[in-house]
Amino acid sequence: MAEAEQKPVEEFTKVESIFVRQRNCLLLRADFSPLFVDYYLHLMQHGLRNDETEDTVLKKLLAYFTLHLVSRPWQEYHAWTFNVCTPRLANYFISGSSLTEDVVGRAFRDGVRETDKNMLFAQNLLPNKEPQTSVITLPDGSVEDWVQDFYRQSEQRQSRAFDLGEDKFALITAQPDADHDWLQELTVEDVRAISETEQTKLLETRKFVFRCGCTVEKILPVVRAMKHDFADLLSEQGFLEISCPRCGATYKVTPEQVQQKED
């Protein structure tokens, strides 16, 4: 008997935007396995590691943030910054855009500001416009509770967030005249079977990878602009270690690189 052909692994995560007819709700869903592979490769490449707690939270935030991006217009750039005390004190940063088809994020515990409540700072940037910022106090519950509370406070509409298992996630948001009772009562099993039990229409798909795009060449202009602040370190160590604030990648910058443009 011939061996079953293995399904090729996608190089990107494809997010489906689906309208649920009669319920007037938007379903966003995806298998995030490809994006999580990119995330772990990034950690390995730069010698980074997250503890299990932070790793689990960050992956969920990456998933729900990406689904949220697909619910928004293409040209927008979004960023979420979390300062939380539960499940333990940590910061999480996630950003991305449908135009570049990428998201990036990091978790860190060093130097985190002490807090007794969970806070989300959400930014929406549009070309040639002032950034829109929301500051939201979040409940002590799960990541799903955070996302749903963000929608209630910032988007001012009902939503439900679901971890479907095996790196699959879904976000369902209320549209005008939505069936709010149906939305509130949904279970994980209901969402898994929604294409069979409800009338749905696929509106669009978007694809995403985990990618920052940072390079030492992009960081050099910042170092050159602040050269006087780093002069002693460059002299003593012979190099600087500069970390990307978006993804945590660390680059070594030498005096020769700093002076190259000046020469």
Give me the secondary-structure topology.
Elements: E1 13-20, E2 25-31, H1 33-45, H2 52-70, E3 77-84, E4 90-97, E5 102-108, E6 118-125, E7 132-138, H3 143-155, E8 159-165, E9 168-174, H4 180-185, H5 188-192, H6 194-197, E10 200-210, H7 216-225, H8 227-237, E11 240-243, E12 250-253, H9 255-260
Parallel strand pairs: 5-10
Antiparallel strand pairs: 1-2, 1-10, 2-9, 3-4, 3-6, 4-5, 6-7, 8-9, 11-12
Short description:
With 263 residues, the chain is α+β, with helices and mostly antiparallel strands. 33% of the residues lie in helices and 33% in strands.
Structure in words:
This protein is α+β, with helices and mostly antiparallel strands and about 260 residues long. It has two domains: about 15-210, Hsp33 domain, CATH 3.55.30; about 215-260, HSP33 redox switch-like (CBS domain Like, Alpha-Beta Complex), CATH 3.90.1280.10. The chain is about 35% helix and about 35% strand. It is built from nine helices and twelve strands. It has helices at about 35-45, 50-70, 145-155, 180-185, 190, 195, 215-225, 225-235, 255-260, and strands at about 15-20, 25-30, 75-85, 90-95, 100-110, 120-125, 130-140, 160-165, 170-175, 200-210, 240-245, 250-255. The strands form two sheets. The chain has a ten-stranded mixed beta sheet with strand order 7-6-3-4-5-10-1-2-9-8. A hairpin with a 5-residue loop joins strand 3 and strand 4 (about 90-95). The relative contact order is 0.18. The model is unreliable at about 1-5 (pLDDT under 50).
